[in-house]
């Protein structure tokens, strides 16, 4: 750690200690301190998430340096279709929109969604459409539903190969697992 950064960390920890141990503060000051503590906690959680992501990406790249797919990128195997069927069973989205709150375990992903209505089409590795989903970004979260709406603001396709790759890279990250559990609960609760 660089000396300048170490000094900042030390000063932050001392400040946090003084904030937490001070008992002669007015109620509004306590509320302000709580905000500071929450902000520090959020920043720490964000750093931990980014660390997990970097480690997962590095691990995936290292483990796939010598792995050559003999069947190529345009072949859909039974294993690919089994993976897709398992995902659909885990996340049984229907035509009814499921609301996913930005104040949930899915919050870190909220900023990655584009504003408005986005259509996502899942393709097999040969280019055939398997299913379409509509994601709508709102001020307090997103909704996901099966099917395509007319005139989406954005439109994307993703192949089974890419879904499997993303699952291999990010599937074991704690925050991702927590988000998956939350989404599954919301599908059941809102069905």
Which terms summarize this structure?
alpha+beta, 5 strands, globular, 191 residues, five-stranded mixed β-sheet
> What is the number of E strands?
5
Distance between the termini: 50 Å
Main β-sheet, in a few words? 5 strands, mixed
Mean pLDDT: 81
Helical content (DSSP H or I, runs of 4+): 40-55%
Helix-strand string: HHHEEEEEHH
Helix count, per DSSP? 5
Task: Note down, in words, how this protein is organized.
The chain is an alpha+beta fold and 191 residues long. It has helices at residues 3-21, 27-63, 78-90, 160-170, 174-190, and strands spanning 98-101, 116-123, 129-137, 141-146, 154-159. The protein has a five-stranded mixed β-sheet. A hairpin with a 5-residue loop joins strand 2 (116-123) and strand 3. It is globular. The termini are far apart. 4% of the residues are buried. Residues 23-27 have low confidence and may be disordered.
């Amino acid at each position: 750690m660089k000396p300048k950064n170490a000094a900042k960390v030390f000063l932050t920890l001392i400040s946090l200690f003084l904030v937490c141990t001070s008992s002669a503060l007015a109620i509004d000051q306590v509320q302000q301190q709580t905000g500071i503590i929450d902000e520090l906690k959020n920043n720490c959680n964000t750093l931990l998430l980014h660390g997990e992501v970097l480690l997962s990406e590095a691990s995936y790249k290292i483990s796939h340096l010598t792995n050559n797919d003999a069947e190529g990128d345009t072949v859909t195997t039974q294993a690919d279709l089994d993976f897709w069927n398992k995902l659909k069973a885990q996340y049984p989205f229907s035509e009814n929109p499921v609301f996913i709150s930005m104040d949930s375990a899915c919050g870190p992903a909220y900023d990655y969604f584009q504003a408005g209505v986005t259509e996502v089409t899942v393709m097999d590795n040969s280019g055939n459409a398997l299913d379409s989903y509509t994601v709508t970004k709102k001020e307090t979260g997103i909704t996901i539903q099966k099917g395509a709406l007319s005139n989406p603001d954005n439109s994307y396709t993703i192949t089974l190969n890419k879904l499997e790759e993303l699952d291999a890279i990010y599937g074991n990250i704690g925050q991702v697992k927590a988000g998956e559990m939350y989404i599954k609960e919301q599908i059941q609760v809102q069905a």
